[in-house]
């Protein structure tokens, strides 16, 4: 760290949140310009819809989405048409604020008329998506997968996927959404930052138990039940590649405006957090992409009211240390010289 500024150029610059530093003329930076904007919920939904229009069969891993407030009339009309054509269809939708993170402001609805059309939706746009009602359950709980993906370069496009990730569990047994249980966030939302406040949250020293586990431990369980884990991995890899292909055009525009070709500048790489939900039939669905996934390897524990201490988290350590180590190996400038 350079608290007083740096005097000599570095091989690798590791920024905290976003890439903006006009004094870097060489080396590599762990952020792409414009990545934060490109993976916001609305921008991601637009990019995915463009691809769904062009290649509907290839991009069927992203839930049907509408952008609020601008597409509210379209959302209402499309849901009405679908309900008229199939009266037995009883959908649930999930509303996510565009800039929200850590589960902030997310809520479930059964009907378009339930959208909270307060002043905030005008000033704070959102995405409304079809809620996936048939998730794969483990120990009767819904969970999602946080996978770490290294985008090493845009031209040529070079992507690496970490072999292990985190499985983050809800803290109440799952039931399909009904008007009575829609508000039960610990049952429907997998966000770690929400569930950690549940009295049922289990901090575990083992990677196989608790409210946060390794993805590999889930794969072991699925494999022992006879699931085709190889096919699941290949579907996940395909989802990651297609998602990045959908985001690439916008990223290139940001990149070229920030680092014009022919001018000295750094090259970029970035670790992304992909949040994926497995359906009952083991089909992976993309929930969102995080430009700044947490790399913390400890969690806060409340010793007494208002008194916290940081406790090591073996699951986070196992997955994240490997992600950062392998990223540094992959971008190591000395490797080319050797």
Write the topology of this structure.
Elements lengths: L11 E2 L14 E2 L5 H4 L2 H14 L10 E4 L3 H14 L7 E5 L9 E3 L9 H5 L2 E5 L6 E2 L2 E13 L4 E4 L4 E4 L15 H4 L3 H4 L16 E3 H10 L4 H30 L8 E2 L1 E9 L5 E7 L7 E7 L2 E6 L1 H18 L1 H5 L1
Parallel strand pairs: 1-2, 2-12
Antiparallel strand pairs: 3-6, 4-5, 4-6, 7-8, 8-9, 8-10, 8-13, 10-11, 13-14, 15-16
Detailed description of the structure:
It is built from 10 helices and 16 strands. By secondary structure, it is α+β, with helices and mostly antiparallel strands. The protein has 2 domains: 12-39 and 135-332, 2-Layer Sandwich (D-amino Acid Aminotransferase, Chain A, domain 1), CATH 3.30.470; 64-131, 2-Layer Sandwich (Dna Ligase, domain 1), CATH 3.30.1490. Strand 7 (137-138) and strand 8 (141-153) form a beta hairpin. It is globular. The strands form 4 sheets. Strands 7, 8, 9, 10, 11, 13 and 14 form a 7-stranded antiparallel sheet that branches. GO terms for molecular function: ATP binding; tubulin binding; tubulin-glutamic acid ligase activity. InterPro entries: TTL/TTLL_fam. Keywords: ATP-binding, Ligase, Nucleotide-binding.
């Amino acid at each position: 760290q350079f608290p007083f500024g740096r005097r000599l150029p570095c091989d690798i610059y590791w920024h905290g949140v976003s890439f903006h530093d006009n004094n870097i003329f060489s080396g590599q930076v762990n952020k792409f310009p414009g990545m934060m904007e490109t993976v916001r919920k609305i921008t991601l939904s637009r990019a995915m819809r463009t691809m769904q229009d062009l290649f509907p069969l290839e991009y069927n891993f992203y839930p049907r989405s509408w952008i609020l407030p601008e597409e509210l009339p379209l959302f209402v009309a499309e849901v009405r048409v679908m309900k008229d054509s199939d009266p037995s269809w009883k959908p649930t939708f999930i509303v996510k604020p565009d800039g929200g993170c850590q589960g902030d402001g997310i809520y479930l609805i059964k009907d378009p008329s339930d959208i909270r059309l307060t002043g905030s939706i005008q000033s704070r746009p959102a995405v409304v998506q079809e809620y996936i009602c048939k998730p794969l359950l483990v120990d009767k709980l819904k969970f999602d997968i946080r996978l770490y993906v290294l985008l090493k370069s845009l031209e040529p496009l070079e992507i690496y996927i970490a072999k292990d990730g985190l499985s983050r569990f809800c803290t109440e047994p799952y039931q399909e959404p009904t008007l009575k249980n829609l508000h039960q966030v610990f049952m429907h939302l997998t966000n770690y930052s929400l569930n950690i406040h549940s009295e049922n949250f289990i901090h575990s020293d083992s990677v196989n138990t608790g409210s946060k586990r390794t993805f590999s431990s889930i794969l072991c369980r699925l494999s022992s039940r006879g699931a085709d884990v190889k096919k699941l991995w290949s579907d996940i890899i395909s989802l990651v590649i297609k998602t990045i292909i959908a985001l690439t055009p916008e990223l290139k525009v940001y990149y070229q405006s920030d680092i014009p070709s022919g001018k000295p500048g750094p090259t970029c790489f970035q670790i992304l957090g992909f949040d994926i939900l497995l359906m009952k039939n083991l089909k992976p669905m993309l929930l969102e992409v995080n430009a700044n996934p947490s790399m913390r390897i400890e969690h806060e524990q409340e010793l007494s009211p208002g008194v916290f201490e940081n406790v090591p988290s073996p699951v986070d350590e196992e997955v994240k240390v490997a992600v950062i180590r392998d990223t540094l190996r992959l971008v190591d400038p000395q490797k080319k010289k050797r």
